[in-house]
Amino acid sequence: MKDNRLAVETISAADIDELLERYDGIITKLSKPSAQGSSTAGELETLTQLDAWRLHQLPPIVRTRKQQAASGWLEKEEVIHLISWKLKHGKFRPRLSQLAASNDEQKVRSATKSAYETYSESSANLASALSHLQTLAGIGPASASLLLSVYDPITVPFFSDEFFRWMHYSEGTGRGWDRPIKYNVKEYKALIDKSTLLRDRLRKDGDREFSAVDLERAAYVLRKEQEIELPVRGKAKIIASKNRHADAQQGSISPPPLKRKKVEPILKDNGTTNLRRSSRRL
Fold first, then answer.
1. β-sheet bridge partners, residue 273
2. Torsion of CA 191, 3, 47, 139, to 10 degrees
3. Is the pTM of this model over 0.85?
């Protein structure tokens, strides 16, 4: 991580606030107009619209249902919207939308209601709640965590790549943002535990209350700002190189000397040598 101050172990409440202030700007940059004539409701929305709906509109709707009917649930269209948000927010897998749309409306209500009731009895029932949600087509552990997060955004985050890798950034082999993810319940439980510990520390250090979804959004900003920045730098280098060669052709500067790649002899087992270029494509 470029700035160790933003590591999970050292980040402050003020740092989290700054990241959250930049979140909407990141979402706006990544938001693209949807194709016209889309067959599902979710695909008609932009990431900006879906994100605001997921964070600010849907959780109160679910809470109201719980208050009025003793249990919350999701409608099929809402699940389609959430899956559309997930695909626009991260990796795009068109087959996932088709699977989510294939679910029966009554089954969506029943599965989400059972999951919410199971989780409301005790947070220790997390695995059982996720299992109820995964009976729906197109819903794996990560998508199930998203459906559960709108029921309890305070303690239940979305199992995103960015959040998991930030929380485990300095652990083990230290692969940081490239750390492999298995997307299983064990990893998700560990993510929630780490999120809870960080929330507790921030509450004690700065007398601030952050939700699990707040931390999830902060991690998203940390990663996406790097991803957005890197292509821009690469493009700038290409443009500068083209300009330099154009000036050289006009005689304003001397053309840069050709750089030869270093070649090293490699000793084989039979005592002969082979030549291998010392640089590899990364």
1. 267
2. -20
3. no
